[in-house]
Amino acid sequence: MRRGLLAFITMTATLTATASQAEVTFHDAIEAQTASALASADYAERHCPSLRLGQDKLDKNLREIKGTLAGLRATESYAEQVSALRSVEQSRGRAMVCMVLPKAHGGYGRGIVTVR
Q1: pLDDT tens-place string over residues 70-91
Q2: pLDDT at 12
Q3: d(CA 67, CA 84)
Q4: Long-range contacts of 82-87 (CB under 8 A, 24+ apart)
Q5: CA–CA–CA angle 91, 35, 48 (5° rounding)
Q6: pLDDT confidence of residue 6
Q7: What is the pLDDT of residue 63?
């Protein structure tokens, strides 16, 4: 009986910890993917006249994570995307960056950079 109770407590603790991690992971995934797509949208706004920001999708993600544009722009994901965009622009050119941006983001970032 004691062994069964210990197994039940261990299983319950594991499930509780997993559920907590899943919530954090869900939030982190939305934040990271949205921040990355926002960096691309900021780039597109400055350099790609054929692209636009999918404001509705961005707003939906911000509501989901209770975040702000400033908060997203302060993330590591945003900074990494800015760096990646610079690298691709230097090696392949601005036209290439603009061509791939609408298809570059999947998951929660999909629809944040769109074609006009």
Answers
A1: 999 999 999 999 999 999 999 9
A2: 38
A3: 23
A4: 82/39, 82/43, 85/39, 85/40, 85/43
A5: 45
A6: 40
A7: 97
Whether residue 40 contacts residue 81, with contact meaning beta carbons closer than 8 Å, is answered with yes
Could you tell me the pTM of the whole model?
0.79
For residue 99, the enclosing domain spans: 2-115
Tokens of 69: 């544009």
Tell me if 64 sits within 8 A of 30, measured CB to CB: yes
In the chain, how many domains are there? Answer: 1
Report the phi/psi class of residue 107: left, alpha or beta, with left for phi > 0 and alpha for psi in -120 to 50: left
What element of type H or E holds 85?
helix 76-92
